[in-house]
Amino acid sequence: MTETTLALCQKPVLGIAMWLASLCTANQALHDAYLDLGQRNATLRQEFMAPMNERYTLSIYLENKANDSLTADVQKNWAEIICPSKSTDGIAGAGISDGEVRSALSLTLELNTLQGRLVSKTKFSPDCPRPKNEEGRILNLGAVDIKKGKYIVSITSEQPISIPNSQNPLVLLHGTSAGFP
Questions:
Q1: Where is 149: in which H helix or E strand?
Q2: Of 4, 129, 142, 153, which has the fewest beta carbons less than 10 angstroms from its beta carbon?
Q3: What is the CATH number of domain 27-84+100-174?
Q4: Low-confidence winner among 18-27, 84-93, 161-170 (lowest mean pLDDT)
Q5: Domain extents in the chain
Q6: pTM of the prediction?
């Protein structure tokens, strides 16, 4: 989507026609971007073009692998995977309040120009406990502002976490969606 397309998608009549033709969709920067979150310093690198100045949201989607007899794991959601239990059994003097629970997941997003110049570096670590109304298979990590241009994005898993064998973590970096006008 470009700035012109976004402006047209927000028009009352024309926007509805464009939305019905699937022309008003989010800019998705990454394609087939799977990241091994179970391995420390696992890195995903892709080149992409930002068609306009835009705020991009970094998310991870738990995608189910094809079912077979070897991968019969129970469907999990992000809250079960990244938010450790608050149990303090056996730890002398340990008291954890609701606001002190830390996520087990930590990712670093590095944005470089094609010439290798660092544009931004952002660390993402989701909050725990997770919101009650959150869709369990999509984890929104945060946002980064990206100017129009060509970039190389590197996303690195700083802390390994255990993902069920039956699920693939798909990394999404998507821009503003015009949505329904």
A1: strand 149-157
A2: 4
A3: 2.60.120.790
A4: 84-93
A5: 27-84+100-174
A6: 0.74
